[in-house]
Amino acid sequence: MYFSTAATVLLAAGLSAASPIEKRSHIIYPPTVDDGIILNYALTLEYLERKFYQEGIANYSQAEFVHAGFADPFYENLKEIYVDEQTHVSFLSGALTAAGVVPTVELQYCFPSTDPASFITLSSVLEGVGVSAYLGAAASIVEKDYLTAAGAILTIEARHSSYIRKVLGQSPFPAPFDTPLEFNKVHSLATKFICGGSSPVTLPFQAFPDLKLECSQYYYEAGRSSVTFSNAFTNAKAFEATLTADSPIYATFYSGLQKYPVKTRITRGNKDYKIDEIPAGIAGQVYVVLSKSETSTSDEFIIAGPAILEVYPKGKVPEVPKGKCH
Question: Do 7 and 113 form a contact (C-beta atoms < 8 A)?
Fold first, then answer.
C-alpha cells in the first residue's frame, strides 16, 4: 500500500494557514527562544498530533481500517500511538507548569483526511514532521534534563514514523539521517492544520507563504522527476515586495543533514516556478523551500514553503501505479 492519491493531492496543494502571512519587513530572523518557548513549541505539536489520532480513531472503525487494507492489529496499535501522544502532552504541560511557565492549550484543528487511507497517509507526514521538529530544536535547548526528555520523545516519534511508513509500503528507514527543521519552517507546516481557538501563549515564530506542488500522476523519483510549484511567484510576491520575474530563485531540498539547491525557472506567464529534476541522492520524506540564495539556508532568504514530498531513489519507485490527479 502506498500514499493514497487523494491525500497526496491535499498535501501537495497545501492548506490555508490559520493567520495571514506577514510581509517580509515585519518579521525578525532568527526568532529568539528559551527552553520555555521550546517546550511550548513542542506542546503545540503534541496537541495537534493527539487531536489527529483522537479524531481518526473516533471517525473510522476497526472494520473500516481492515477493509482499507490495514489488517489487525493495526487499529489497536493506532490506539497505542494516541496514548503516546496524550502522554507527551501531559508530560510537557506538567514540565512547563513546574517551571513556572504558562503552557499553551489545545486549539481547533482541521485535518483533510476523508477515509482511513488518507488518514494514515497524513499520519506518516505528521510523524515525520514531528521527528524533524524535535531534531531541529535540540541544539537550542539549554537545560540538559529538557534535552534528554526531548530526545526521549523524539525516538518514540521516530518509531511511530517507521511503523506507519512500513504499513504504507514505504521504507521504514529511507535515509541514514533524519532531517532537522528549524522553528519557522515547522511552524509554517503546523499552522496549516490550525483553524481556530486561542492560546495564552504567543510563540515568536512566523509562517512563510504556502508552497503548493502541482499534482503529478507519477511518484517523485530522485535524479529524474520534475517539480512545478503552482502560482508560487504570485504568492511569494505578496510576501517579498522586491521580488521580480528576473530574480534568481532556488528550490532547496532538505534531506537528512544536507541541503540541495536547484535553480528554478519561471513558467506559465510568470506564475509558477519549476525545476526539471529532483536532486539525486535524496529519499524519504523530503522538504523543499523556495529561496533567494543558492548558498545560505537562513530564513531571511526563504520566500515560500516548506512543501513535503515523498521521494524514491532513482529506479526504485513502486510498481503499483500512483493514480491520476483529480
Answer: yes
Return the residue matching grid coordinates 507519477.
218
C-beta separation of 311 from 222 below 8 A? yes
Placement of cell 495564552 in the chain? 200
The two beta strands, 302-312 and 220-221, are: parallel
| 120 CB neighbour count, 10 Å cutoff | 25
Question: Within 13 A of 61's CA, how many CA atoms are on the CB side?
Answer: 3
Q: How far, CA to CA in Å, does 133 sit from each of 69, 183, 246, 254, 265? A: 30, 7, 34, 13, 30
Rounded Cα gap, residues 54 and 284, in angstroms: 26
This model's pTM is above 0.70: yes
CA–CA distance, 13 with 213 (Å, rounded to integer): 6
Separation of alpha carbons 33 and 155, rounded Å:
23
| 258 vs 22: CA distance, rounded Å | 29
Do 290 and 302 contact (CB within 8 A), yes or no? yes
Interatomic CA distance for residues 164 and 61, integer angstroms: 18
| pLDDT tens by residue, 265-311 | 999 888 999 999 999 999 999 999 999 999 998 999 999 999 999 99
Burial class (CB in 10 A: 0-12, 13-18, 19+), 147: middle
Is it the case that residue 5 has pLDDT exceeding 50? no
For cell 487511507, the residue is: 117
Cα separation, 101 vs 93, whole angstroms: 9
Helices 116-137 and 5-13, packing angle to 10 deg? 40
How far is residue 307's CA from residue 181's CA, in Å, rounded to a whole number?
Answer: 12
